[in-house]
Amino acid sequence: MARIIGIVSGKGGVGKTTLVANLGVALTNFEKRVTIVDCNVTTSHLGFYFDLYYYPKTLNQVLKDEISLEEATYYHPSGVRIVPAALTIEELIGIDINKLK
Question: Distance between CA atoms of 38 and 28, rounded to whole angstroms?
Answer without folding.
Answer: 18
